[in-house]
Specification:
Elements (H helix, E strand, L loop, with lengths): L1 H16 L5 E5 L6 H8 L9 H13 L3 E9 L2 E8 L2 E8 L4 H10 L10 H17 L2 E2 L2 E8 L4 E9 L2 E2 L1 E8 L6 H5 L23 H17 L6 E2 L3 E5 L4 E9 L5 E8 L7 H7 L10 H16 L7 E9 L4 E9 L5 E8 L6 H5 L12 H13 L3 E12 L2 E10 L3 E10 L3 E10 L8 E9 L2 E10 L7 E13 L3 E16 L3 E16 L7 H7 L1 E15 L9 E15 L4 H6 L6 E14 L1 H4 L4 E13 L41 E14 L4 E13 L6 E14 L2 E10 L11 E5 L4
Parallel strand pairs: 1-3, 4-7, 9-12, 13-15, 16-18
Antiparallel strand pairs: 2-3, 5-8, 6-7, 10-12, 11-12, 14-15, 17-18, 19-20, 20-21, 21-22, 22-23, 23-24, 24-25, 25-26, 26-27, 27-28, 28-29, 29-30, 30-31, 31-32, 32-33, 33-34
């Protein structure tokens, strides 16, 4: 029988080969043109009829992914290809996964989106991906069902209906064999941790199992031992035991700790011109006699790579050679530096800047074509671009084009720098507010900052216009001016001012900025009278004068971002020498015999920022901020109330009404101070990356006085929602005064818009 079938196939094949193709037809094509189909088939008119080639052509059509079925008919010398095409996905929806966008983004990441052709294999893969992701988030017994609904003739709507199942909670972690390190130490860096008390609260550990991270947790435990000198520690893969009746789990790690090693001899093997091994050894953080710490060793490797990179060796490699002496419990380290070839910059290629001009970006890049590569210059360039506030994201990569040349690929993602707004709001102190403004810190992509606007509330009216060019003609010089009209009702008096300033600045040494300028203010202050107002109060709060000032400032800033720095320092000192021109009445002259005079105001501030992402794999930012201001005047001269210092509110001690903290006179009236100090400690964590929102916890402490700083001391604590909105940075402050006194004005909520530091 088999021989007969084989013989018949041979006879049919021979008959086909005896015929030639006279015509090729395609029926049912939609996505491919007939000419393209002929190219794919590889069969042309005049070719011999070949069954092998026909079968191969059918396979080629299936490989295109467009077709559900393909078959061929033959009518004499005419080949007719029949196609049944797959339907398109008109709409795709994920229900029950989270937000619809989350599910659709996940499907898109595996290549399934609206407009694709419906394919059973890809649908099954998508279901598997959704279930795997749910399991990685601690969900078990999850079910995903897919339904399709026809849309027209050639399309379907696809719905993934997700039932998340149950969460598995980690009730207990067992580190069997661990004695040298505590359970708390071993658990710190794990993705899978025991459920905290009240773990359902934000920022506490919920205890949910993250299956996809289990295998990596063993390496994290091992890494913890390596941080404490236990180089021979053995950590088994975790064994998870699940109780499905309560959906809880215990996870066991088998551990053999070994001995703890200290660092023995440390040396550097290198022959790079310009590198001093002795100097590099002094900069290492892991020194002889220290307990070995793998994190410090990695930090030292990075420092050595950067040192070589600063001499042009962009691809320098640092290999640590480790020699253990188990008997003495010592480990000797030798860092071998292999520099490779010195590299120069071929070109700087900028992309992503739809508005900002290339020349503006190049101002802040400290490497140019022809320069020798320098790792510090590269890092500083990225930070400088971040400090401009023009970009949401900055990335600088190197592209190797030869052994000794690279291109720098500067990729930026611009952020909104201009706003046109008209609206209002409500502030805890100012009440109902109306405002309108037009501002742009990067006008037409030129890097110039300008604004015009007004704010009106129940206690204030403010008009302002300002202009600053930070790089005049792309130089190191800056020029700025401002004009304003201000009418503000403080607690005890109302201040009406018209003023302006003009300043000229220059950048020095990459991170230093200095400026000098002049200012002018026409001031009129009047007391807010009530039934308790005295003549002395009138003298204290009523001032009419003109102020001419000489201004000078010095600033250091090496932070890496304008709005949310994660590393670096801001330090600044501003000095104002002011001369006041105004007349006092005869009664006031008995109190201030020398009338209005001059004063010197010195204001200094410091901000330190440190991100812990590299240490704990979480975007926690620690901040320390301090501010100090002093005013000195001549003997017998009156310092107007509008020039004195007050404390409270955003920028000093939150939790107290703005300007409400001040030294008091014998009648209990706020008289302002001449010395003020405040400090803040903050911890900021991400709240929503998509919305650009963070949550910061803070502790504030401040002092103010007339003769000494510590005449009045107050503190507070609370939280701030920090939002980088399209209207600028907005801070929503929830504060609690810790040590208020009976007459203090406290505030539990306030907000600010457009402020920094």
């Amino acid at each position: 029988m088999i021989k007969k079938m084989a013989l018949s196939w041979m006879l049919i094949g021979s008959l086909l080969l005896a015929q030639k193709v006279t015509q090729i037809k395609f029926e049912g094509l939609v996505h491919l043109s007939p000419s393209m189909a002929k190219e794919i088939a590889g069969i042309r008119v005049g070719d011999q009829m070949d069954p092998v080639k026909i079968n191969q052509s059918i396979k080629k059509f299936f490989e295109q992914g467009y077709f559900k079925d393909v078959w061929v008919d033959r009518q004499g010398g005419v080949l007719i290809y029949h196609f049944k095409e797959k339907v398109a996905i008109a709409n795709i929806q994920v229900k029950g996964y989270g937000s619809g966008d989350d599910g659709e983004k996940l499907l898109k990441s595996i290549g399934l989106k609206k407009g694709d052709l419906y394919d059973e294999a890809r649908i099954k893969k998508a279901k598997k991906t959704l279930i795997s992701r749910l399991e990685s988030q601690g969900n078990y017994d999850s079910v995903v069902e897919v339904t399709t609904t026809p849309v027209g003739k050639g399309a379907v709507s696809v719905v993934f209906d997700v039932n998340k199942g149950e969460k598995i909670k980690i009730k207990k972690l067992n580190f069997i064999g661990a004695s040298a390190l505590s359970k708390g130490d071993l658990e710190t860096d794990l993705a899978n941790q025991e459920e905290d008390f009240l773990g359902w609260l934000p920022f506490l550990n919920s205890g949910d199992v993250k299956v996809d991270q289990l295998e990596y947790d063993a390496y994290r435990v091992k890494d913890t031992y390596m941080k404490h000198g236990y180089l021979d520690a053995y950590v088994s893969k975790p064994l998870m035991r699940v109780d499905y009746s309560s959906y809880s789990a215990e996870i066991d790690y088998q551990i053999k700790e070994g001995v703890q090693y200290r660092v023995g001899d440390v040396s550097i093997d290198q022959n790079v011109d310009g590198l001093d091994s002795k100097e590099l050894l002094s900069e290492l953080s892991l020194k002889k006699g220290h307990i070995f710490n793998i994190t410090r060793m990695r930090k030292d490797i990075k420092m050595l790579q950067e040192a070589a990179g600063n001499l042009g060796y962009a691809y320098a490699k640092v290999s640590p050679q480790m020699r253990k002496n188990a008997e003495k419990k010592l480990i000797s380290l030798q860092y071998v530096i292999q520099p490779g070839m010195k590299v120069t910059i071929n070109d700087v290629l900028i992309s992503g800047n739809d508005s900002t001009k290339d020349r503006v970006i190049r101002r802040y890049i400290y490497l140019a074509p022809g320069d020798t590569f320098n790792a510090t210059d590269l890092k500083d360039s990225k930070s400088a671009l971040g400090r401009t506030g023009f970009f949401e994201k900055v990335d600088i990569q190197s592209q190797r084009i030869s052994e000794d040349k690279i291109n720098l690929l500067v990729k930026v993602k611009e952020t909104a720098t201009g706003t046109i707004s008209a609206g209002g709001g409500y502030g805890s102190y100012e009440g109902l507010m109306l405002n309108a403004s037009i501002a742009d810190k990067n006008i037409f992509g030129s890097g110039i900052n300008a604004s015009f606007g007004f704010d009106i509330s129940k206690i204030s009216t403010n008009y302002n216009v300002s202009f600053t060019n930070p790089k005049i003609w792309d130089s190191m010089y800056s020029l700025g001016f401002s004009l304003y009209k201000k009418d503000y009702e403080y607690i005890d008096y109302t201040q009406d001012q018209l003023g302006g300033s003009l300043s000229l600045g220059r950048q020095f040494f990459r991170h230093f900025y200095a400026s000098v300028g002049v200012g002018y203010v026409d001031n009129e202050s009047t007391i807010n009278e009530d039934e308790n107002t005295t003549i002395y109060d009138t003298y204290l709060y009523t001032d009419q004068y003109k102020k001419t000032s000489l201004l000078a400032s010095l600033k250091f800033d090496n932070t890496d971002d304008y709005y949310t720095p994660r590393e670096g320092m801001i330090a600044a000192v501003n000095v104002e020498y002011a001369n006041l021109d105004g007349d006092l009445n005869a009664t006031e002259l008995t109190i201030y015999p020398n009338g209005y005079g001059s004063f010197i105001k010195t204001n200094a501030k410091l901000g330190l920022y440190y991100g812990l992402n590299d240490w704990i794999d979480y975007d926690l930012i620690l901040r320390f901020k301090a501010r100090v201001t002093t005013i000195s005047t001549g003997d017998g001269e009156k310092l107007p109330i509008g020039e004195k210092l007050f404390m409270g509110g955003i920028g000093s001690v939150r939790g107290y009404d703005p300007y409400s903290l001040s030294p008091l006179d014998s009648d209990g009236e706020r008289m302002g101070g001449t010395k003020r100090f405040s400090t803040s400690i903050e911890a900021s964590i991400p709240l929503s990356e998509a919305a650009k929102m963070r949550l910061a916890f803070f502790y504030d402490y401040g002092m103010i006085g007339e003769d000494d700083f510590n005449e009045i001391k107050r503190s507070s604590a609370g939280a701030v929602i920090e939002w980088q909105s399209g209207f600028g940075p907005i801070n929503l402050v929830f504060a609690q005064a810790i040590d208020p006194e009976a007459d203090d004005r406290t505030s539990t909520f306030e907000f600010s818009m457009g402020t920094k530091f």
